[in-house]
Structures are given as structure tokens and as C-alpha cells.
Amino acid sequence: MFALFDDAGKLHASRILSGTDASVQLELDSGRRLKVKAAHVLLTFEQPAPAALLERAAALAADIDLDLAWEFAPEEEFGFAELAALYFDDPPSAVQQAATLLKLHEAPHYFRRAGKGGRFRKAPADVLQQALAAIERKKAVQAQIDAWAAELVAGRCPDAVRAQLYRILFRPDKNAPEYKAVVHAAREAHLAPLALLQRAGAITSAYQFHWQRFLFEHFPRGTGFAELSVPPLPEDLPLADGVAAFSIDDSSTTEIDDALSVRGLGSGMVTLGIHIAAPALAIAPDSALDAVARQRLSTVYMPGHKITMLPDAVVQAYTLREGAPRPAVSLYLTIDEGTLEIRGATTRLERVPIAHNLRHDRLDTVVTAAWLEDPACAPAAPPEVAALQPQLAFLWRLAQACKARREAVRGRPETFTRPDYTFKLEGVTGPEPTGEETVVIGTRARGAPLDLMVAEAMILANSHWGQWLASLGVPGIYRSQASLAPGVKVRMGTKALPHAGIGVPCYAWSTSPLRRYTDLVNQWQIVACARHGTAAALAAPFKPKDTALLAIISAFDAAYTAYGQFQSTMERYWTLRHLRQQGITELEAAYLKDNLLRAETLPLVLAALGTDGLQRGERVRVRLGTVDEVTLEVTGTVIEKLGTVEAVAESGDTLEGEAEEPLAAPLAIAMAVDDADDGASPAAPAA
Fold first, then answer.
1. For residue range 502-517, what is the model confidence (pLDDT) as tens digits?
2. Whole-structure pTM value
3. What is the 8-class DSSP label of residue 376?
4. Crossing angle for the helix pair 547-582 and 517-532, nearest 10 degrees?
5. Strand-by-strand arrangement of the 2-7 sheet
6. pLDDT confidence tier of residue 668, bands split at 50, 70 and 90
7. DSSP letters spanning 86-150
8. Average pLDDT in the 273-297 region?
9. Which residues, other chains included, contact 190 with Cβ-Cβ below 8 Å and sequence gap of 6+?
10. First and final CA of the chain: distance in angstroms?
């Protein structure tokens, strides 16, 4: 005697050895014996043999018409044998009963189980129609997935996949058919998803790939601004008497946040004016413009283009462009001309005449240390710059003194082992680059006089205003660093803590309110201090222990980091583009660590073969391999050791004392080929 029984939802057939009312002892064809509850035995039969029964039942079940079986089935609960008798013969054979049971098991949308023992109830007609429609839809979707996958494998990109490219790669819905098609195709083609999409033509421009990916993640609604009016400035701002300020920026700078003025040279006491653009005097917290600035949090920079934090009309209203007086928050420092010690400080809200917008990229070769010390011994400067030589010479002396004082607090000098690289795009014809322009990569020596003058003046302002806010009990947004020990990072918070990297007691970003939201927030607080003095804590927009400041810090930190990584990405893209445009196949580089080399004349770090035995800083010649502008990868092979070992700092300092990363963030996609169904081909690597 044989038995057909249910074991954990699966049907098995075996020989009966013995049994009681409660259980049955069975033996499978494999020889394995098991004991099952009698209630789990659904059918007993004498022939055919168990294996033959299951084989013949499976073949017969495939021919059962489910629609017809559903019509035959009783309205009330029934057993599988009852349905077999209605559909086949009465009485049905063991094979027919087993076939009916198998079909009922695999068609839950037609028949629902009604407890154990092979009992079922047919689904209501309306529920059945909904289920069948859902099955048809699923089949259609799967057919579409298969068709798209076949196109991708054949090297063609379906329009639907192209339209969802960035969502598929970086923020996927893993149930979306476009995503599944890419995953299945990657398995079928044994390619990484990114490589598959490149081969299929989904990515036609590496530049647009990086640019659109960034916009997808951070500016999904575009980079334009809604129509917003420019708030008027206060009409009672006094004019700064006797001030003729000048700014020092790059030629591409439109958001001119800061300017300087120097008065009283030769009198023994010099007044240094640090003038900061004052959008906080017009933009109110929680206003429409504030909402825009808070959403963007910072201007985004990249070679040849930028996305400003504020609309251009607003920038033009408050930027410190030369000509008419401009609204500013001014910090006046009284400085001993001989010792360069600061004797006093005053903050004023006023209109400041801007006499000149100097551009350091045009003047760095003119305003040199030699020219500042003796104009007669250096090339002649333009007349407007020559007239400023005394003021610039004083600022140069002051900057060096301030830097020396900070380095004494730091406990070690700031080191600049690498130049600043500049990127200029030639041939930009539209509102933004296309990626096909010619890139010119230049260098600027770190700590050049004009750079250092501005940097030290801004450090003075950010440190002074940070201490002033704290002394009046007004909260602000600070940057601090507990020490210069390895691994101790710069952090943002609301407490006026020391910044060891810069060497100041506290540091509050306040000098770029047109470009950074933290600076605009701090400027609101500074304006309250200038207007209300000791009562400023009651009048400032943000009160002590205001949780809104913590939310701003968290959002800003995330956005600023992402924007910085994007800038590094685009600079690396243009560097790789430069290699192609100039036909560069070999470079001289210095060994860093872990098979990484740093090019000596380009802002490029790359992995290379043949670095075994190299010492840190050892110079080599490297032959470049394949350059991939999409993944931003370039490899190399060391072909010659140049023999000179140079000192290479563990990390380069910036003027704010923060370490720089040697490499742009690697491209990482948010998909993996093992997300496909079990029936797909073996997985390929996921880029």
C-alpha cells in the first residue's frame, strides 16, 4: 500500500510500513523512513508505484483546464477527490486524484485552501477576475523587462531605460521594470551595470553624466529660481566717511563678499577696515529668499560654471562691486603700525565706497613680495594698483605677523607642499559648459601675497566676531578643532571652541554671506549685536539653545560636503580631459602610499603598477593606461625611478588649517546584479 502525503506544503508519495489512528510509518524510494501524522496522509493507493504516480499525475495536471475545473467545483467547501470525480470519472483513479490535488495546489488564485486534509473552496468570481488580470499584467511587465534586457545585451539602450538612467544607478526602485531589465541584462552579458549601459549608448557624454547625476541628486527641480523680488536695503545706513575700499578676488567671481580698506598710514595707528557684503540687512529670516538660501545652503562651484545660492538679481544688489557705495557690515581694527598689535575693534552697519575690484589672477605676478617691499625693484604695476602699494604693503606685513602668531598657537607652521590649480575653459558658448571645451590648467603658489592678505583679514574677522557673539551671549555657528592630532577633524557646532588648525580661540564663518548660508545666519546675529549691544541676545533671530541652529548645521554640513565632492569630481574630469587633449601619455609623479602616485604638474592622484619598494616621496616616471572619464579612473605603470626623494607632507594644509583629500570620491552605484530573479544568469561584478 502506498500513500500520498503533505510535508510542509509539498506533496510526496511513499510506501506504507505500518500505521495507527494517529500516525503512519512511511518509507521513501530513497530508503529513508519517516513518521507522519495520519491527518497528513491525503490519499492511499495500491498502484501505480509512488514515483510513477507523481510523474503521471504531473503530466495529467498540466492538461487540466482551470477555468473548467472552477466551473465544475461546488460552491461550498470540497475535497480534491470530489472535484476529481466531477472533472474526470466517478470514481476517479489515484492518478486523477493526485493530478487534481497538484493542480489545486498550484492555482491559489482559483482555489483557496480550507484547512488541512486536501480541502478547498473556490475563489469568488470577482476576486478571480482581479487575480487573473494581475497575472496578465505581471506577464506583460515581465515580457517588457525581457525585451528591454535583450536590447541592452544587443548594445541598444531602450528609451525608457535612458529616461530613468540616474534613478536606476543611484536611487533605484528595485521593483521597477527598468531597473530589473538592467540587472537581468548585466547578468546575461556578464558585464557590470555601468559598463553595460556605456556599451549600449545610455551614456553619450561623460561630462553630462556627472553633471546630470549631481542635478538628479541635489537639484531635481532644476537650478533656476522662482520669481522673487529683491528686498530693499534700510534707508538709514550711514556712509563710511573717508573709506575707499578694494576687493581682491578671481576674475570669475561675481559674489564679492569682502573688501578691505586701510587708513592712517604713517600716523602710528592704522585703521584696517574689513567690509563684508550685508544681505542680512535686507533678507529677513523665514522670508521667501531665506527659504531659497536655506534650501541650497551654499554656492556650488565647478570649472567654468557655478550654481549660486541666491538669485543673480539679489547677488547684484548686495555684491561689493566697484562704483557706488555698497551696504556692508564693517569691522574696524585699530592696529599699532610699528608692532602690528590690535588695539581696538568696532563693528558698524554702513554703506562703503568700493574703489576697486582687484583680480588676483591678473595681479599675482605683479603684486609680489619684492614689489611690496620695494616697487622700484619690480615690474611696474597698473596705475590703480601702484596707488595702492602702501596699503597693500601694510596688509602684507600684517598678514605675515598674523600668520606667525597663529602658527605660534598651532605649535607648528602651516605647510603648503602643493600648488593651487586653476581651471580655465576655452570655447564656452552657452550658459554652461558642454564638456567638449579646451581646458587650461594653471597653478597658483599657495600663500601668495594677495591670497594671504585676504585670508588673514578674514580669519581676523571670523575670529573676532565669533568671540563677540559669545561675549554677548548670542549663539552662532562655529567651526572648531580640538587639536592637530591625527584623526581629529574640524567640526561645526554652536559653542565658541578653539580651532587648533587655524590657531584661534574660536572661529565663526561670517565673511561669505552671499555664498554660504552659515555666514548669512551668523551675519543676522552680528547685525543684532551691532544694533542692540548687550541686549542682542533678546533681539537676535536665533536664541540660546535654539534647535534650529543645530538643524541648519546638520543640513549645511551634508550639502557642503556633497558640493565639495562634486567640485573635486568635475576637476578630476577636466584633468583627465586635459590628458586626452594634450596627448599626455607619461607623467612624472611622487609616490604617496598604497600604490598611489601624485602627479607633479597636474592635480591628479592615480593608482599604478610597479610601485613595490618605493619610498614615500620618491619621484618616478609613469606611463598612463586607459583613461575612463565616466568612472574617472586612470591607471599607470612605473617605467623609471628618477632617484630623488622629496619630503611629502602627510596632508596639505589650507589657509584654514584643514587637510585636503588626495582623491575625488570614487563613483559608486546603488545597484547590484544579484538583485535579479533566481532564473537569471550568474552575476557580473557591479562596477
1. 999 999 999 999 999 9
2. 0.80
3. G
4. 140
5. 33-37, 23-27, 10-19, 2-7, 41-45
6. low
7. HHS-SSPPHHHHHHHHHHHHT-TTTEEE-SSSSEEEEPPHHHHHHHHHHHHHHHHHHHHHHHHHH
8. 95
9. 681, 682, 684
10. 59
